[in-house]
Amino acid sequence: MKTILTVGKRMPKTSRQLLTASGEIKAVIETNKAVEAFAQFRALLPHCVYVDTDLKDMPWQTFVKACRLWPGGELLKILVVSATNRVKEAEEALAIGADTYMARPFTNEVLVGILQGIDLVPPKS
Fold this sequence. Notes:
The protein is an alpha/beta fold.
């Protein structure tokens, strides 16, 4: 069972419910403050970090880099989420260590597909 830490804008409630109901995701832990989230990240070492680009207390790039550099961070799955769908932002996210990038709003199916693509949840049989 896996844990997802969300930072910034919340993951939609229906998405959280879908992921935890699947049995693959044990918990979705949410915080809107990057500094607080990094402390939780260090304590929990989640399987995935869902990072919104609209963080108030730290540039999202700094947060992603810090997670990737933390011991064990190379195993972490990082999903960067943005309200805009800019190619440059997506390229930057991938260049600094994110595993994938996606724009809001999104459907549950898109989120599950992204998480399957980074091997966080298995494909449906």
